Amino acid sequence: MYLFYTPDIDRSHCLSEEESGHCVRVLRYAAGDTILLTDGRGTTYTARITTAHPKHCEFEILKAEKQEKNHPFHLHIAVAPTKNAERIEWMVEKCTEIGADEFTLLSCRYSERKLMRTDRLEKIILSAAKQSLTRYLPVIHEMTDFDTFIRTQQDSEAQRFIAHCYEADKRLLRDSIERGRDVLVLIGPEGDFSEQEVQTALQTGFLPVSLGNSRLRTETAAVVACHTAILLNE
Q: What does residue 31 show for φ and ψ, rounded to 5 degrees?
């Protein structure tokens, strides 16, 4: 069954215009049909369509059920967007399908892209979440300065990792993650983090990690980190 997102279901029993169009015009649901909804925060609703209008499809709730997350921890990927926007869009899509819970876009010293439209990324996240039947919609944050972001994480209880390409004593991410604990992984831009950024992260409690022997593109590294964290907690 197709999954529709209704983040305002506490205030309105009507699909958004975009979801209404997809439900009625594209999928051809009609009044009396049963549909599956989620608020993006873990609750799934079985509902019946009462008004099948392509701009404001109304429904009545038949049953509500709280769903547990597929993994018992919070996964946060903080990544410096690539110069080519399509590559970071692909990364966000794939990480959403795999199970990421949160994204932060980082502005680093060697970043080639300083601006990124989160409204488009939010649509990509929503589409990927529908495809993978995800009941929890990932959050994405606007571009944030690296040093500012690091300061906000000083008191975090999550396992914090920075993946960089400098020669250093680093363990593999797969050997560093503790099951069941929240995870935050920093992924740098195409020119990598600066040495000063790496030192700042380490001084704040981040652990240096490797994602393997190959040198990966930014978007590939983010997907590998995401998959590694999810797989180790399966």
A: -55, 135
